[in-house]
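Q: Structure tokens for this one, please.
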Amino acid sequence: MILNFFRRLHAELGVRKVTVGGGDPLTRPDVIDLLRGLRELDLRIHLDTVGTAFLRDARIRFMGNGTVPRIEPEAVARLVDLVGIPLDGVDDTIASFRRFGSAADQVECLSLLESAGARIGVNTVVHKHNIGCLGVIAETLANFGGIRQWQLFQFMPSGPLGSRNRRYFEIEDGEFDQAVKGLQELLPNISVTVKSNTFRKNGYLLIDGSGTVWSPLQNNDVEWNHADGNAERIVHGNIRDANLIERLPRD
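A: Here is the predicted structure, written as tokens:
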């Protein structure tokens, strides 16, 4: 079902890229078949994962119970264009934000993926508790030759989880802009990409585990504003709906 939906997105809306995220997609029992099917559609595929399943058998989260067996990094590296690993700190600052994974595990994942020849991306959400740690994270990334991209996202207080944690993690635009200055110079061999809330606003079409297709509810102003941080969402339909493609936003 999901592959048929992406086949239509590709053919009818010209979609060229998909990011497979989570939860953690590596805990889907069918993840390799899913990635292989997306590859056959000639899509550019990014996979974002905490990476635990690269290290050991991993507990299934969000899609049932039990565990999935360890996945060889090479099996994923062959099928995707970029494997994204989150790294929001190199010590306990990571535990204040991420519910799963540890800095040590994620650094180990980077080593395994590099040995597997994967094209690696690192994703950092910049928030109130790690905004002073970006230089230290950069020093860690400099040790890896396989990292192609470092994406820095301003914490976005939207959706049920983001809006609920707004007062703990939100930073102002100016704070974010100042914190990310000069990071590219520290990492000349890695593409450093900075994504503010204004840059990302109204830029997401998301599919949850039940097949519901939705977008965060944000107004049409160009700039991010306080009202955009909310728990609401626009539900477009479900991938099983025959006429869903016709109802999706075209911009």
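A few notes: The CA atoms of residues 199 and 223 lie 8 Å apart. Residues 2-247 form a domain with the pyruvate-formate lyase- activating enzyme fold (CATH 3.80.30.10).
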